[in-house]
Amino acid sequence: MGGYLKMNPQMRDYKIWEEDGYFEHVAMRGVEMKCVEDLDCLVQEFIGELKTNKGEVVGVGTSDYGSDLKRFLGEPETMDMERNIEECVEKCASGYTDIFTCDANAVTIDDVVRIHIELNTYFGVTLVELDMKRGC
């Protein structure tokens, strides 16, 4: 069974119990601890965080949760807007220990931004298409 950890930023590290009888400390970046058993759950958690405005979720250790995606969708249509969206997606993915790499490509079609996301994860590689309405 697989899983991933997403840690509270106030925690500098966490301990993994090793079979040899010692603890190993591992530095982490992220928001909160979660365990996910498959790729669908991981993608759902990632997309949920991507669609949540940063600072919208209130609670202990959640100040980093969310992204600036919706802010960038309100910008004028420029190459910078699309690049900002791509960087926003990749920054959000960097907080997940089971997402090894993320490659995002944003394309504006009329009033919709189509974001192609390739995630290389612990569970394998997957492609996600996300359509977001501009100006939301």
Low-confidence stretches: 1-19, 22-32
Largest sheet: 3 strands, antiparallel
The radius of gyration is 16 Å
Distance between the termini: 38 Å
**Shape label:** globular
Please give the order of strands in the largest beta sheet. 3-4-5
Number of helices: 3
Helix content: 10-25%
**Pattern of helices and strands:** EEHHHEEE
**Content of β-strand:** 25-35%
Q: Tally of extended strands?
A: 5
Structural class: alpha+beta
Mean pLDDT rating: 76
Description:
- This protein is of the alpha+beta class.
- 24% of the residues lie in helices and 30% in strands.
- The protein has three helices and five strands.
- Strands 3-4-5 form a three-stranded antiparallel β-sheet, with helices on one face. The protein has a two-stranded antiparallel sheet with strand order 1-2.
- A hairpin with a 2-residue loop joins strand 4 (112-121) and strand 5 (124-133).
Set out the fold topology.
Elements: E1 13-17, E2 23-27, H1 39-51, H2 69-73, H3 79-93, E3 99-109, E4 112-121, E5 124-133
TL;DR of this structure?
The chain has helices spanning 39-51, 69-73, 79-93, and strands spanning 13-17, 23-27, 99-109, 112-121, 124-133.
Please describe the structure with a list of short key phrases separated by commas or semicolons.
three-stranded antiparallel β-sheet; disordered N terminus; alpha+beta; two-stranded antiparallel sheet; 136 residues; 24% helix; 3 helices
